[in-house]
Structure of Aminopeptidase N:
Amino acid sequence: MSQNPVPCPAELDRTNVTRAEAAARSALLTVHSYEVDVDVRGATDPARTGYPVTTTVRFDCAQPGASTHLDYIAESVDAVELNGRALDVAAVAGDARIRLDDLEASNTVVVRGTSAYSRSGEGMHRFVDPADGQTYLYTQYEPADARRVFPTFEQPDLKGHFVFALSGPADWVLASNRPESAREDLGEGHVRVRFEPTLPQSTYITTLLAGPYTQWEDRWGGHAASGADAVDLRLFTRATMAEHFDPERVFAVTKAGLDHFHDLFGVPYEWGKYDQAFVPEYNLGAMENPGLVTFTEDFVFTSRATAVQYEGRANVILHEMAHMWFGDLVTMSWWDDLWLKESFADYMGSLGVDEATEFSSSWVTFASRRKAWAYVQDQLPTTHPIVADIVDLEAARQNFDGITYAKGASVLKQLAAFVGREAFLDAARRYFQRHAWGNAALADFMAALAEASGRDMDAWAQAWLHTAGVPRLSVEVGAPSQDGQPATPELVHEGTDPVTGEQVLRPHVLKVGVFEPSATGALVRTGQTAVEVPAGQARTPLTELEVPAAGVRLVLPNDEDLTYAKLALDDASLDAVLTHPVADPLAQATVWAALWSMVRDGELSVRAFIQAVGRLGASLREPGVYQMVMTQAVSAIGLYAHVEDRVQLRTELAAMLAGHLEQLEPGGDRQRAAARVLAQLGRDDADVARLAARVLVTDAENRAPQLQVDREIRWLVLQARASTGLADADELDAELERDRTAQTVLWHTVAVNSLPAESVARAAWQAVLSGADASGTALSNDLLSATAEGFGTADRAVKDALLPEFWPQLEHVWASRSNGLASRTILGLFPVHQDALDGGEDAQQAHPALAAAQGWLDEHPDAPGALRRVMIEQTDALRRALRVQSRQRSLEH
C-alpha cells in the first residue's frame, strides 16, 4: 500500500446502505453509547498508512436472536468481540461491514481495527504542510464517512452518546465535540486525551482534530432568557496560516450569531463549548459538528480580501451555527429530509448575516449567487423535489446540491412571507421543543407550522416541496383601451414539473414593482403592489399597479425577491434594463439574475449581454453583484458565444475591465474583483494576458491605482501568462520557491499543468485519470482538482485526441476511488467546452463530444446511479452550451 492509501480495495455498492436496510435496523436496535479510542501517535510517519482504533458499542435489540451489522471501511479488522464472545474476523468482517449474529436483548460489541488515513477529504484526512513539514489531521464524515474512522451504525436516526479518546503528541491540539475530561501521560512526548460524553447525536456529526494547530480563545457570556450557559470559544488554524488570520472578526460574528439565534429560537445551546477549526484540503465550505465546527481554510485570507469574502465567511459561520438547532438538536430521520437541515441553515445563514452582523447586503448576495445556483440545478435533467427520494447512501451523496440548499432556502424565504415571520419562528420553537435530541421528518415541521399559522400547510408542502422545476413569472401590461384607459396588468404564472410533465402552479406571496428613470437616468421604484397568488391560478390581475403607458419603464415581477421563480421581462422592461442602471441593489440583483437566465436559455445573445455589461457594469455598486456579473460574462463568452465572436468579445470585456481598474474606487472591492476577472479572462487569450500583466503587476506607472499586488494577483497573472505561453516552468518554479505555502503550491500546480505543450497536457490528463503524479504518488483532492484545472486550458485538438481514452475509464474511476475523488476526476476531464457545428440546433446532436457522452449513457444504463447522475448533468451542460451557441446569429438579428 502506498503512503497515500485508498481505503478499501474498491468503492462498489457493497459499501452502500439502503434506506430499507436503515429502516429495518432502526426498528431493531436502540443505541446507547459508543466509546471510541483513536491513536494517531504515528501520524507524522509517512510510511504509516493507518492508525489503530478500538470501539465499544452498547445497544439493545428488540428481537433477541436477530442479526445486524456495523459499518466499517477499514484498512484491517483485527478483532471483534460480541457480548464477551470472540468472533471469527474472517467470517464476519468484509464488504465494509461487520456482521453481528444471535443478538441478545442488551449487547456490547468491541472492535479493534486499523483505519486508513485519507487524502480525499473523507474520513480522517492527513495533510503535511509544504511550508514547514508539520502534519495536521481532521475528520469529515457527512453523509456516511464516520465508518472510515471507527465502526458505526451509519445512519442518522440511530443516535447515541459518544465518548472519544485521542492519543497523540503532547504538544498537539487534540480535540473533539466535547470538552476534555482527562489527560494521561503515555511517555515519549505523547498523551491520551479523553473527552466528556456527548449528548445524543448522529454519527456523521462526530469529529476529531489533531495537530500543531495555533489556537485563540474567547468566551460567550450566555443567554439568560433561554437559559443558555456561557461557553468557551476557540479558533484553530495551521501554524503557517496564523499570521493571516483575524480571530477578532470571527469571534465577533460567532458571539453575534449565538445571541441572535437564541433570541430567535429560545432554545439553549448545550454542547459545552464552541470550537471552530479552519483546515486544509477541505471538500466542503464547512461542517456543523456540534462543539467543533470545521471550515475550509479558504476563509483564512492570505491575500487582500473583499467585503464579499468577509460576508461570505460570516454567512457560512452562521449557516453552521443554525445547524446546532436545525440538524444537530433535531436531526432528519433519513436523507430524504436532508433539506430539513440544509435549507433551513442556508436561509438562517442569510437572515443572521442581515440581522446580526455589520453586513447589509446579505439578501442581495443571496439573490445574485445562491439562487443562481438553484436555478441552474433545477433545470438539469436530474432535478428533483426539495424532499427527494433517497434510496441509499450513494443517492444521498449526490443530493448535497443547489436544490437541497439554495432552492430550499429560497422556498423557506417564500414560506416566511406566506405564513408571516412570527408564525415561522413560533413553528421552529415548537419543533425544537418537541423533538429535541431526537429525529424528525417533514410532517413534524409542517404540523408545527399549521398550528402556528392556522394555514393549510399540507397543500403548501405538496406544491413546493414535493414537485420539481422552476416557476416562471411575467407581467402582461396590455394596450390601453380605445378611449385611452390603461389596461389592467396581469401577473402570469407558468410552471411544469419536469419530472412528471404535469402543470404545477404553486402559491406565491410576492410584490410587483414599477421603476422609471430618475434625473440621473437610473431606474427607481415609482410603484409597487403586494400580491398573493393562490395555488393553481395562472393569471392574477394587478388592479392596484399603475404602469406608464409610454416612456422608459421596468415592470419587475418578484420585486424584493420574496419567492422562487424565473422572471420573463416584457419587451419594454428588457429594453430598459439593457440600457439603464437599476438603483435599488436587490432589484438590480434580481434583474441581472433574469438576464443571465435569458443568456443560458438562448433568449438573449451573448453579444447583447456583454454590451450591457460594458454599458452598465460600473453601476453595479454592490461588489458581490459586480463580481458575479463579471464572472458570468466570462462564462458567457467561453460557453455560449459563437466561436467566431469570442476573440472580439473577450477584447471588449477586457478593455472594460481595464477601464474599471482605473475608474472604480482605488483599492476598493470592485477594483479587486475586476483584477481577478481580467486575469481569469486572460487564460484564453494572449493579448488579454499581456494586458492583465501590464495593468496589474509589471508596470508600476500604468498599474491600477492603489491595487494591492499580493500573492493572489501575482499568481492569477502568472496562470494567464503560463496558459498562453508567456511564462515558462522556470519562472513558475522560481515564484513558488520565493513563497511556498499550501495555497501557492496549488496555484503553481494549476499554472504548470496549463503550459501550452502537448506533453504537458498529456501528463496532466494521465495524472487526473490515474489519480497519481508522475512518481506514482496519489494526488490529494485539491491537487487533483488543480491539475485538472490546468489541463482545462489545453489546446482543443490535444484534448479531443485524448477523449477516446476517457469513456472506457469511467466505471473503473468510479469503482476504484472514493465518491469525492471520482467526481473531481470526471468533472475535471469532461469535455464541456466545445464549439457548435454549423447547421443550427438539430445539427448539434451529431457533435462528436455530445454523441460520445450520450452514447456512454445509452450503453451504460446499469452503471452506478451516482456516476450516471454526474454524467447526465455534464452531458446536459454540454448540450445546452452547443444549443445556445447555435442560436447566437438568430438572436443578433
